[in-house]
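Before any further analysis, backbone shapes were mapped to integers, which produced the following:

***
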Amino acid sequence: MAGTRAAIRYAKAILSLATDNKSAAAVQADMVLISQAIENNASLADVLKSPVVKLSEKADVLNALFPSLNSESKSLFDILVTNKRVDILGQVAAQYGILYDIENNKENAFVTTAIPMNPELETKVMAKLKTLTTKEVTLHKSVDEDLLGGFILRVGDQQYDASVSNQLNTLKRKFTIN
């Protein structure tokens, strides 16, 4: 993805500044807001990437959309506009979230189930998470009816597949080999 290295550099710089000012958590909230706004609004993403729209107008749009951000977040807008890199704002916000989680020993886990999770299944998933990571985990849930039952758990680069469809596929492979 173009601009990723630059996005990481900007994210590291804003995280360092926010950490020094003891406002890293507040800036994280700002970055989530910015990231979601750009992700959910194609018009905003188009404006930020458009070479036709003047940089000053892009800055005005950002300041109008996000009037109550922290000073560190607003200074990020100014720096990106000055350096003509406002088009990577969404990437910077996403990278900030990743770096913030690493610094605070947090990790995201994604669980996919065939039906919405009940408390018993959530207890099993959380128990499995404790064996996969020692970090504080935020669990993101989704439903995929193709699993038939069970769950698929992803944490970092690890995946634990306890789905019925996986078990059926394993049985199918065993019977077709013999």
Residues 4-103 form a domain with the Peroxidase; domain 1 fold (CATH 1.10.520.20). The chain has a mean pLDDT of 88.
